[in-house]
TrEMBL record:
Entry function: Catalyzes the NADPH-dependent reduction of ketopantoate into pantoic acid.
Annotated Ketopantoate reductase N-terminal domain residues: 6-127
EC numbers, comma separated: 1.1.1.169
Keyword entries, A-Z: NADP, Oxidoreductase, Pantothenate biosynthesis
Organism: Trichococcus pasteurii
Keyword Ribosomal protein: no
Pathway where it operates: Cofactor biosynthesis; (R)-pantothenate biosynthesis; (R)-pantoate from 3-methyl-2-oxobutanoate: step 2/2
Class in the EC hierarchy, top level: oxidoreductase
Leader sequence segment: none
Domain of life of the native organism: Bacteria
Classification lineage: Bacteria, Bacillati, Bacillota, Bacilli, Lactobacillales
Protein name: 2-dehydropantoate 2-reductase
GO CC terms: cytoplasm
Length: 305
């Protein structure tokens, strides 16, 4: 099982980052940016760039059925667009296609597996990047890394193929022995960072320094710990400290995706974060007052759009 072709669904900040990286590494003929006709026309007319460098993408119409399925499909959309992205990817997925998701949250792999077969999914966490899309240009200082792993031993060949592809393309990555633990750790980070900076209208600088915003972020993150334990994931205070170390390395002037949503006045992924926490807290009879506060604040912000 060797990965020769990769299809990317979603041209937000991460889709552009990975599309640009792979295209420069292995050439546009092996990299497909899968879009609908309207988006294709707009992107071709307006252009896309990464750190000011034009992206020479190969665009493929989502209805194009004459191509062989891609060896690897990367879903790089917002959580609110996952169902649409699955339909966009339909013609790119065959029996031997491997799928990875760089979506936030803890549920996208399950949804993708239900659509295409769980045996095709290699779990993934995108971590440490600071990509920020402004118009049709993405600014990024840190490309971060992809943490990958499997939840079943029969997927080992797929994991090996993805690892070999990332090595071929020099994409920073780490193979995780316990990928579900890593996914929950990243989820905890996002529960704090994304929501607090959307509500407080700040940048990473505002949670780097000691004060009310950082305290609020940590309180929101800490509410994830007992829920993860109930879910069978041994998330601890050590993981929270590790998350804080990652946060403190982020570009001070950067901002997370939910803050970008707030600026653009578009629906955020709040349901993936505090929405998920509140449902699971209710299920297990656990308190989550900080996430309730953040959820209510985000709902109030979005009600003004």
């Amino acid at each position: 099982m060797k990965i020769e072709t990769v299809a990317i669904v979603g041209l937000g900040a991460l889709g552009i980052l990975y599309g640009h990286h792979f295209t420069k590494a292995i050439g546009k003929d092996r990299v497909r940016i899968v879009v609908n006709k309207e988006r294709m026309a707009r992107y071709q007319e307006q252009g896309i760039s990464f750190n000011g460098e034009p992206c020479d993408f190969q665009y493929v119409d989502e209805t194009e059925a004459s191509l062989e399925p891609a060896d690897l499909v990367i879903l790089a959309v917002k959580g609110t667009q996952l169902d649409e992205a699955i339909e966009t990817a339909r013609h790119q997925v065959g029996p031997d296609t491997t799928i990875i998701s760089v979506l936030n949250g803890i549920s996208s792999e399950e949804v993708i597996g239900a659509a295409f077969g769980g045996e095709k999914v290699v779990h993934c966490v995108a971590q440490g990047m600071d990509a920020l899309r402004i118009g049709n240009d993405v600014k990024s200082v840190h490309i971060g890394e992809l943490r990958i792993g499997i939840d079943a031993p029969e997927k080992q060949d797929r994991l090996d193929a993805v690892t070999a592809f990332f090595e071929e393309t020099a994409l920073p990555h780490v193979v995780e022995a316990d990928i579900l633990h890593r996914i929950w750790a990243k989820f905890m980070l996002n529960v704090g960072v994304n929501q607090v900076l959307m509500v407080k209208e700040g940048t990473f600088r505002d949670i780097h320094k000691e004060g009310p915003n950082r305290e609020l972020m940590i309180a929101a993150m800490r509410e994830v710990l007992p829920i993860a334990q109930k879910e069978g994931v041994n998330l601890t205070e050590t993981d929270l400290e590790n998350d804080l170390a990652i946060i403190d390395r982020l570009t001070p002037r950067g901002m997370p995706s939910m803050r970008q949503d707030g600026i653009a006045k578009r629906p955020s992924e709040v349901e993936l974060f505090s929405g998920t926490i509140l449902k699971k807290a209710k299920k297990y009879g656990l308190p989550a007052p900080t996430n309730q506060y953040l959820y209510d604040q985000v709902q109030a912000i979005e009600a003004t759009y």
